[in-house]
Every structure is written in structure tokens, then in C-alpha cells.
UniProtKB/TrEMBL annotation:
SUPFAM superfamilies found in the cross-reference section: DinB/YfiT-like putative metalloenzymes
Protein name in UniProt: DinB superfamily protein
The DinB-like domain, residue ranges: 42-167
Top-rank taxon, per record: Bacteria
InterPro entries: DinB-like, DinB/YfiT-like
Protein source organism: Rubripirellula obstinata
Length: 196
């Protein structure tokens, strides 16, 4: 059994997280994250400024704000994964995503935000590749609930997938989600930078 396999139900925090993961294809979170690097770049290259900076009803954030949220979430997921993988069992609090969104950190260009999202995702992916298989089993308490490194990695992937799908729907864009040549994607695509 590979360490990056899907988590067991007892590794997750909530029924909502189980539902989110059920929608996510794949059996190896490292491969899923790698494909998402391609997907986010493809999607970004098909969006225009008008699509990025308007609120599409019934949503309350612009696409730019959604990407900012995804960047913030990647950082939070990465920190939690690092702490748990290292065996640090200090309980971690929840995070207020709306406070981060209201801070409006990402006032730069959209392409820079996509690059930042790619960099944070790649950082988390590389961390997961280098940790020992036993570390995937380690748990930490987040908002008073124990969760494993494996579950956090899958939730990070499911979270990004959820938001990229919504962006596709909002902007009526459909793009390839995987690089066609799997061998090339595994070897080279992970190091490719998003346009920007």
C-alpha cells in the first residue's frame, strides 16, 4: 500500500470532507496534486480580465478572490501537514478564511496569483514526497479534531479541485485537467511554471 493512498474514514474530520473527497478522482494524492498544477495553469490561460474581476451571482467573491483564498488555504494546509508529519502534536486552531479574504493580500496581477498558487502547491507536494511513509499516519488535532497527514493532503487536493471546478462553471470554460503524456507530466510538468 502506498503512503499517499486515499485516507480511511477515521482519518477525516467531517462528513463534508468525506463528500468532498468522494468527488475527487484518483488513488494517489501526489499524482492528483501534480495534475492540478497543469489544470490551474490551463484554466488561468483561458480566463480574461473581465471574468477574473467580476462577481458571478450567486457567489460573493470574484475569481481573483477565490484564487487568493486557494493560495491562503494551501499555506494553511502546508503548515498543518508539516507540523503533523514532524510529530508535533501541539493542537492547531481552525482558521477564519473570511478574515484572510477580507485582508486582500493578493492585489497583484492575476498571473502572479496563479504563480503563487502553483508555488505553494508545489511546495506542499514536494514536502509530501520527502516525508517518510510512517509520517503519513501521524495525526494532529485541528480545531479539536484529530486528522492525519494523509487526510490533510487529500483535503488540500479536494479543496483546490472544488474551487477550480466552480471557476470553470462560473466562467463557462472547460479545459484539460491532465497533461496528455503521463510520463512527461510526472517527470517534467511539476517543474513547469505557470504563465506570468
Amino acid at each position: 500500500m502506498i503512503a499517499s493512498r486515499r485516507p480511511a474514514e477515521n482519518e477525516l474530520l467531517s462528513e463534508y470532507q468525506q463528500e468532498l473527497l468522494a468527488k475527487l478522482p484518483g488513488d494517489d494524492v501526489i499524482a492528483v496534486m501534480n495534475d492540478q498544477l497543469f489544470w490551474m495553469c490551463e484554466l488561468a490561460s483561458h480566463l480574461c480580465t473581465q471574468q477574473v474581476d467580476i462577481v458571478h451571482s450567486p457567489y460573493t467573491w470574484t475569481v481573483r478572490q477565490v484564487i487568493e483564498h486557494c493560495v491562503d488555504a494551501e499555506r494553511v494546509f502546508g503548515y498543518r501537514i508539516l507540523r503533523a508529519a514532524a510529530g508535533d502534536t501541539t493542537p492547531l486552531p481552525s482558521w477564519d478564511e473570511n478574515a484572510y479574504a477580507n485582508a486582500r493580500f493578493g492585489l497583484g496581477t492575476f498571473s502572479n496569483l496563479i504563480s503563487e498558487l502553483g508555488a505553494t502547491r508545489q511546495s506542499n507536494r514536494l514536502l509530501l514526497i520527502r516525508i517518510q511513509p510512517a509520517a503519513w499516519e501521524r495525526k494532529v488535532s485541528v480545531d479539536s479534531n484529530p486528522i492525519s497527514v494523509r487526510a490533510m493532503a487529500w483535503i488540500a487536493a479536494a479543496h483546490l479541485s472544488h474551487h477550480l471546478e466552480i471557476i470553470e462553471q462560473r466562467c463557462q470554460v472547460s479545459v484539460d485537467r491532465k497533461y496528455a503524456d503521463r510520463k512527461y507530466a510526472d517527470r517534467k510538468y511539476a517543474d513547469r511554471k505557470c504563465p506570468g
